[in-house]
């Protein structure tokens, strides 16, 4: 009997480990996210949009270090060549969670990103999980819980719905979310 896989949902996870002298400054990334929040620089202007709590970020050297590490990891380990697109931050307070959503706009698939990365900028140990929703053929509405601590990331297709589960600490958890196009 022969087997042929027609489709798969691949998740890539690791901890960003930059070389000495090129470490990302997570405190600066967190400060950039907090500044965007204070200026209410959101991805969407409409309060009813789930993107209303996604804070737009300008490119920074520290964010670039994370993007480069993830892109090199994806290419070297999995032959994925990625280009980063939109980056935004989320701050999840105690007992809060993010909205369940896709970052993919299905009415313009040709121009949409292929992957989304959730990076834990400042997360207390064992207090955060990214929940990825998926279907496995006729087994619908399955979920995968991916724990994240500071420095960890998960990268997955933009076709998957996801959310950041309830913050189990008293400390606000801060995340960098970036979309990537595969080339």
Largest sheet entry = 6 strands, antiparallel
The poorly predicted ranges are none
State Rg.
Answer: 16 Å
Count of helix runs: 2
Proportion of beta-strand residues: 25-35%
CATH class: Mainly Beta
Features:
globular, alpha+beta, 9 strands, six-stranded antiparallel sheet, Jelly Rolls, 183 residues, three-stranded antiparallel sheet, 2 helices
Short account of what is shown:
By secondary structure, the protein is an alpha+beta fold. The chain contains 2 helices and 9 strands.
Which helices and strands, and how do they pair?
Layout: E1 12-15, H1 26-38, E2 55-56, H2 61-78, E3 82-92, E4 115-122, E5 129-136, E6 139-147, E7 152-157, E8 161-164, E9 173-182
Antiparallel strand pairs: 1-7, 2-3, 3-9, 4-7, 4-9, 5-6, 5-8
Description:
By secondary structure, the protein is α+β, with helices and mostly antiparallel strands. 17% of the residues lie in helices and 34% in strands. The protein has 2 helices and 9 strands; from the N terminus they run E-H-E-H-E-E-E-E-E-E-E. It has helices at residues 26-38, 61-78, and strands spanning 12-15, 55-56, 82-92, 115-122, 129-136, 139-147, 152-157, 161-164, 173-182. The strands form 2 sheets. It has a 6-stranded antiparallel sheet. Strands 6-5-8 form a 3-stranded antiparallel sheet, with no helix packed on it. A hairpin with a 2-residue loop joins strand 5 and strand 6.
């Amino acid at each position: 009997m022969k087997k042929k896989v027609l489709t798969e949902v691949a998740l890539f996870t690791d901890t960003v480990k930059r070389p000495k002298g090129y470490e990302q400054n997570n405190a600066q990334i967190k400060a950039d996210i907090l500044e965007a929040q204070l200026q209410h620089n959101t991805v969407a202007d409409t309060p009813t949009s789930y993107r209303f709590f996604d804070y737009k970020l300008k490119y920074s050297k520290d964010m670039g270090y994370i993007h480069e590490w993830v892109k090199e990891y994806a290419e070297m380990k999995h032959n994925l060549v990625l280009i980063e697109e939109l980056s935004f931050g989320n701050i999840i307070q105690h007992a809060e969670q993010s909205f369940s959503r896709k970052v993919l706009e299905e009415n313009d698939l040709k121009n949409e990103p292929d992957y989304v990365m959730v990076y834990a900028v400042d997360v207390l140990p064992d207090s955060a999980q990214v929940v990825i929703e998926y279907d496995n053929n006729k087994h619908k509405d399955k979920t995968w819980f991916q724990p994240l601590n500071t420095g960890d990331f998960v990268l997955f297709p933009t076709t998957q719905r996801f959310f950041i589960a309830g913050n189990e600490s008293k400390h606000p958890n801060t995340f960098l979310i970036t979309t990537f196009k595969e080339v």
